[in-house]
What we know:
Elements: H1 10-18, E1 21-25, H2 26-32, H3 34-42, H4 44-67, E2 78-82, E3 103-113, E4 117-127, E5 133-137, E6 169-171, E7 177-187, E8 201-207, E9 219-229, H5 238-241, E10 247-257, H6 270-281, H7 285-292, H8 301-312, E11 317-318, E12 324-325, E13 331-335, H9 341-351, E14 355-359, H10 365-368, E15 370-374, E16 381-385, H11 387-390, E17 395-399, H12 406-417, E18 420-425, E19 428-433, E20 437-442, H13 455-458, H14 463-466, E21 471-475, H15 481-504, H16 510-520, H17 524-539, E22 543-544, H18 546-568, H19 581-597, E23 602-603, H20 605-624, H21 634-650, E24 656-658, H22 659-668, H23 673-686, E25 689-692, E26 697-700
Helix pairs in contact: 2-3, 3-4, 8-19, 18-19, 18-20, 19-20, 21-23
Amino acid sequence: xSDHVSTAFIYRDALLAARTRLRVKMEHMQQFDKDLAECLIxxxxxxxxxxxxxxxxxxxxxxxxxxxxxxxxxxxxxxxLYSDSQFGPSTMRNLTSENVTKLVRVSGIxxxxxxxxxxxxxxxxxxxxxxxxxxxxxxxxxxxxxLPRTCxxxxxxxxxxxxxxxxxxxxxxxxxQYIDQQTLKxxxxxxxxxxxxxxxxxxxxxDRALVQRISPGTRVTMVGIYSIFTSQDSKAGSKVASVAVxxxxxxxxxxxxxxxxxxxxxxxxxxxEAEFRAFAQREDCLEQIFARVAPSIFGHDDVKRAVACLLFxxxxxxxxDASRLxxxxxxxxxxxxxxxxxxxxxxxxxxAPVAVYTSGKGSSAAGLTASVIRDxxxxxxxxxxxxxxxxxxxxxxxxxxxxxxxxxxVAIHEAMEQQTISIAKAGITxxxxxxxAVLAAANPPSGRYDDLASASENIELQTTILSxxxxxxIVKDPRxxxxxxxxxxxxxxxxxxxxxxxxxxxTMDDAAMGMLSDExxxxxxxxxxxxxxxxxxxxISPRLTARAADLLEGRYVQxxxxxxxxxxxxxxxxxxxxxxxxxxxxxxxIAESLxxxxxxxxVTEEHAIMAWELFHQSTMQAAEAGVHTAxxxxxxxxxxxxxxxxxxQRLAVGAARGERLLLDEMVRTGFDPRVAKRAMVSMxxxxxxxxxxxRKLVVRTSA
Length: 703
């Protein structure tokens, strides 16, 4: 059919170009004939078949014109429907029995995909008595075929012949016709699941051109026929019970993968775009954004800046040799209890377009990356993406990062730098996308940040994982009278305002409050920030200017040489947080995200200076925090050497003692407690001693 907007035959040209498939937009169908579109939505299985036949006719006619001469063979055409506007139920939760056999449009995340199978469209059967051949068409989707009990092929042959017996059919597989089919598992997008509910999932059957197009972890919008099938339970007796019960599934007749990996409402009106641009032009644009990050938390301005950088993210780059550079900013918050670390994580979970929140102890390596699951009905293995895959294009918040088992933490390494998750389990070898930023919160090993210990003792994570974090903050709880007064009044105010808001709504019962809590309590400022983040992430990808690049380059080289000269002078050990090329890339990413906040296309020098300051306040402070061996005078150094000698006398190689006991003994023999502790720390750093049993025991490993 022709499109009313223009006189060109867009569908005829598309059909001639693709030959086997044709994508039809539902809106065009409605413009062409409203009643036809209604019928297609109400009774899709009949009308879609007619549409495919008509497309095949048009293709045959146009090819006949091209080839002019012999009759061209009719090739079947698959019609794929897609639509920009929503029709039918908007979410999977709202699909009910009324929607069965209707056309619906749902979106979600594909979490599992089976292997492709062959599905017969027409089965060729031969009668074993009269050898007649018959074709039985199969229902599409999961539907089967019903063979007739009797053979009526030989009825009109001879009057006296013996009729064929009952059920005489033998299937001839090589003469039957097949198409490809694959089953997918579609799950609701995490942001559309009501709080406290588990996400619903739906089985989807895709065939022909759509097979093997989608890998797990992709967000898709599907148009399909909501259908039912009888589940074949292997257990005897269940067939009798489930005569009338059918399982629903979706027969997909068109799908679109969302290229940007966030499923948040993507369309922005012209007024909104103008508002965003006006906001970005303001002088205090950055200050405004930082002020909107976690407004209920007092202080911690540098952490708020880092969280803002994490939300906006740098630019993802593809190099000519097809390798990718990470664009997401990873942040680690390390520090005392009750410094609002988890509150920052919860804020990001609410504000980021896509976010997944997990806690360290409760998540395993497979749950974070991807697990291989055996399908109950067919016994096949298929992949299900974990938290990192579901948060593709968003943020993963990991609380209690230090309590994770080391082997689980290793699983995140690849996702944090290469932004992929590769898997080789149970005969499935694949690479999934995990383009997510990581925001982690951790406590130091002793629970509190110990000012007397060195930085590497307080940060007990390995340098391999630390170098993957762009910004590392040490959040301390300083004992300072004025600050305490300010924090106390701030916390009390937050509580008072919360009570007042509840008192106004006090007429409602609890259930209604729970229903309303998500929608009505959304702060308009918060909502603006969420939309602004989505807009900036989608439309802006800034690039470095030459001056900004020179500035970052110079500062980085200076920093490396400073650390190298310190280590060469033997003033101190290597810093707990290594300064490597990754940190230079981190500086670039932070500068890009600051430019993105102002919707700028170029990273200027001032962005680079701000990025350097933020980096210096966080990661450099963390690397240089705590006690350094550089601070010792020569007399103190001699004392430390004596204390080390005394420790060696008390501990034989391979012996283990309690750390407290050892230190108490040293103090009783007349050593200064700080000197004894320093000696033990330096021996541990050299590898002579080792901590065991939750850092309570000290073991001497070598002479």
